[in-house]
Amino acid sequence: MVVGARCAGSPLATRLAEGGLSVALVDRAAFPSDTLSTHIFQAEGVAALGRLGVMEQVRATGAPWIERASMRLDDVTVTVPWPTRPGDPGPQLCVRRSLLDAILVERAAAAGAVLHLGSRVTGLVTESGRGLRSGHAGRTAGVRVHRSGGEGDDVELRAPLVVGADGRASTVGRLVGARRYHVVPNQRFACWGYYQDACWERPASLVIERWGTEFVVACPADSGLYLVIVFPPLDRLGEFRADAEGAFAAAVARCPAVADVVGGGRREGRLSPMASHPAFFRESCGPGWALVGDAGHFKDPAPGQGISDALRQADRLAAVVLGAWDHGLDAALRQWTRWRDADAFEMHWFATDMGRAGTVPLVLLEIVRGMLATPDGGGRMFDVFNHRARPSEILTPVQLARATARLLGAGAQPRRQVLEEVRDVVREEVRRRWLNRWPAYVAAG
């Protein structure tokens, strides 16, 4: 059974059903249904959708291939082709969740998953038995759901495995008592807006601009729309609550690269704000249950990796479940969770740094500047967004030392500031590696 039918749950249900399992797919929504999301997915996510066999439907939304990256970090600028590999269907796309999730739900139904839409999970079905850890109340054996639309009281849906793919406020995660760890409060908030008739040039670009305390991301989306996301620091949340339209327009106007594109267009629909989005990992498996996608791990939305991660994790989890269904499933799920943590750990902190308030540290700017001066340095940097390169391949001790030497040798920046920034970078890296081995847990709920 899979609870949550969006970009983690539906692909997982599809894979399991095609692998010969009977799958129930439960979601409280009726599709099409929107949800807050950067809804940008990079080459790894595109490749996963290609394997799922839905690229024709996704491209039919009118979303153009985003073939370039255009980035500004203070005075460092770069425009490069988005990196791809042979066999990739394309570089990256931006499709609203109301369209993408509906495509994925239809694909799951076509694969044989039984849909229970408009059904809210109200509790777990548990049973005693072997394979329980000491002190566990019982093995998860299904869920109780309340069906909307006057179809009667709660009903039980029983299954040997319940997978929560129900987002960062996961009901399954709460009911099983899964603890969170690596929790990081957000220092910025996000606000989405869409423009019709924006004047962008082909090939389409993903625009990332962070300067001073400002941060803006923009790109073409489906249906002729142009997406703009602003990430102001939390101390400006009051401005948006008092006058969201005016504050959003002012934030866009401060970014000429985006303001010039949308200046002749018109903004459509309501603004979509997200004020609180702490990043975290969550314990993601136990007797008869597992968590996938944002239910098990949510990172800062600044790099827009949630959809690609959900699709990749669904692929991996499906292979694990199908391979161990008849023997050793609990152990296989624990191994999958360890893979997920190792896979996501560096990107979790990369996203945290990208979404941090304040200015970009001088030493990090110098590392980026030095990387862009090397052959294909821009492509290697954006492969981090593809989840095909690790941040540690960019921020190495050697690169940190060289960037520090260049800054100190140039003498243009205060020596004390440079050395303090380097000290802070090293201390934070040591702290994060410590947490990776000894997480600080937060109780469920």
Largest sheet: 7 strands, mixed
CATH top level class name of the largest domain:
Alpha Beta
Strand order of the largest sheet: 5-4-14-15-16-13-17
CATH superfamily assignment of the largest domain?
A: FAD/NAD(P)-binding domain
End-to-end distance, in Å? 23 Å
Quantity of strands, as a count? 22
**Kindly state the mean pLDDT as a whole number?**
94
What does the overall shape look like? Answer: globular
CATH topology assignment of the largest domain: FAD/NAD(P)-binding domain
Task: Please describe the structure with a list of short key phrases separated by commas or semicolons.
single chain; 445 residues; alpha+beta; FAD/NAD(P)-binding domain; D-Amino Acid Oxidase, Chain A, domain 2; seven-stranded mixed beta sheet; six-stranded mixed beta sheet; 14 helices; 38% helix
Explain what you see:
- The chain is α+β, with helices and mostly antiparallel strands and 445 residues long.
- The protein folds into 3 domains: 2-61 and 96-185 and 278-351, FAD/NAD(P)-binding domain (3-Layer(bba) Sandwich), CATH 3.50.50.60; 190-274, D-Amino Acid Oxidase, Chain A, domain 2 (2-Layer Sandwich); 361-439, no CATH class.
- The protein is 38% helix and 24% strand.
- The protein is built from 14 helices and 22 strands.
- The chain has a 7-stranded mixed sheet with strand order 5-4-14-15-16-13-17, sandwiched between helices. Strands 7-2-1-11-20-19 form a 6-stranded mixed sheet.
- Strand 1 (2-3), helix 1 (9-18) and strand 2 form a beta-alpha-beta unit.
- The protein is globular and about 70 Å long.
- The two termini are 23 Å apart.
- The model is unreliable at 130-135 (pLDDT under 50).
